[in-house]
Amino acid sequence: MKIRPVLKAEYPKSPVSAFLRKAYQFLASVKLALALLIIILICCVIGVTIIRGEKAWALIFSTLWFNAILVLLVVNVAFCFFSRIWGRKVTLISLGMILFHLSFVAMLVGIIYNSQFYFRGLIRLTEGETLPSGEPGSYDYADYGRFFDFSKLKGETTLIKMHKGYKTGGADKRVAYEVAVGEGYSKKQGIIYITHKLDHNGFSYFRDKEGYSLLILLYNKQGKEIYGAYIPLQSLKQKGDRYLYTTGTKEGPGSFPFPQDPLNPLFSLQAAYHPAFLKEGAGDAVFQVWQLDRAVGDRIKPMAEGRAPIGKKVKTGDYYLSVKEVRYWVGMNVRYEPGKLIVLVSLWVGLGGMILTFIGRMRRSGV
Amino acid sequence: MKNEMMLFWVVVGLYGLSASSYIFGLISKHEKLFSVGLYSAIAGFIPHVLVIAVRWMATGVSPFITISESITFGIFCAVLIFLSFEFSNKKVRPLGVLVMPVAFVLMGWAGALYKDAASQLVPALQSGWIWAHIIGAATGFGAVLTAAGLGLLYLLKEKYSGGVYERLPDLQTIDNLSYRFVAGGFILYGLMIVTGAFWADQVKGSYWNWDPVEVWSLISWLTYGIYLHLRITFGWRGKRLAVYALVALIAMIISYWGIPFTVETFHSGFRIEH
Description:
The structure holds two protein chains of two kinds. Chain A is of the alpha+beta class. Chain A has six helices and 19 strands. Chain A has helices spanning about 15-25, 30-50, 55-60, 65-85, 90-115, 340-365, and strands spanning about 120-125, 130, 140-145, 155-170, 170-180, 190, 200, 205-220, 225-230, 235, 245, 250, 250-255, 255-260, 265-275, 285-290, 305-310, 315, 320-335. Chain B folds into two domains: about 1-65 and about 95-115, no CATH class; about 120-270, no CATH class. Chain B has helices at about 1-30, 30-60, 65-90, 95-110, 130-160, 170-205, 210-230, 240-260.
């Protein structure tokens, strides 16, 4: 398609109309389109070479200026392309190009619409645990658009069971979560694995990560049970593809005040689990206890420590600790993206447009 | 594994013979060497098909999971496109002067990285989208490699005359052909990005995460998008676009096989931390 000059309408010579004309000429410039494409290309190259990973996300891809460039490109594409094609005879080539450029505009509409109404959260549950879906506190992480309404998240989310070695249709999915979401008659139960989500009421539930959860019991000097809680463990990769299952963060092992609410903490506890290879849920638990005022990263010796098989008590200072049972915890991504469908459909429309243009050009020149 | 490996190196050897025949044919202006190059490329392509088939049949796992398999499959598509084009358009016989050395070097690299095939597909890869995604990427690469080859022929024909160069199509035809392969590659790469977005959405619930592989594929796509813009909107033709097609091929190779496998990304193995 050859460049057609931008239509020059007769504008009254007021400062406002002069500004509008300049703005229109700026937005409808093909040179601007090319410059923006090159700027985006350079940003992308920098984002995968000089600055990489999370730094690239923080300094480039998530920034307002970069996203403003993307938006400006789409606006420019719309002005630039449609001002030139307007009124021309529709051929296979022009139809393809209209669809291709229109898909960018539709994608932007979908992204903007989505940004106002979306919800993205990570909910972590131990087997058998139920959390209220509409409570922000139920999520380890929750991010949502300005107009998202938490009342859309109706009822509860329950992890019924985590299935290890799950197979379906002859394919090994390794891990699957059996979950129930919603309330009353609209409650939905289903299985989630890496390529299979659960949809309910516009929300999608995706598998994210999983680990062990220990039911740690605390006993007084007389051996009387005074507290118990499920404590999720991190899976930390060690040398030789081995894993350390321990309390802490994804950065490393750590202790936490124990017991937790509603009791007052007595000490800082780090618990680790060494699973038995042959029996599910068996193995040993290792406890290390420090004073409560232990600072993060302090490499001081624990005031007490002990190791015991699952189900057995071990004395740690003035108290006894035991792991009564081992369950699994899972983390699920909960997503509500009402604009996503527009974006995904636009991708196909854009691809279809490219194909139509290509066929049209092949037919025209016959080369 | 041993027989498979032997077969693999036979492919590399024959592609090497083909590459050197094309290069020396061009240097010495001895056109019979182009025929040697073409027939050794065909002779290498047959065991190439066998290497992929044997590996696929032995495990039942899609034959493009490891980096070595990915390169092998990408070169398979590139050589298939090249051979099809050679037989449909006999005037572009010296095209192999770029295509076959690239095929030879990349296959040699794949051979150095060759590993036992995975016994089963990791769960994240058990998706129907993988086929369209990989075929889009591999054929897209084949198309832009051919376009770059035509770009090289354009530059050579423009600079030299007589003999080999005389029998090449005229400059405008070469330019048009190169443009068509770029446009085809642009669409196929678009297919790869679209199906990749659907695949990521199926696994993670988000269609775009700005991970390095996604960004590199966007870089390649934008690179060819700019090519098309320069040609269609700004009227660029000939030498400038021929040089552009050659330079863009480097970005394509880096994006496809270079960077993605050197950094921890969504594509570099779906680790199940458990």
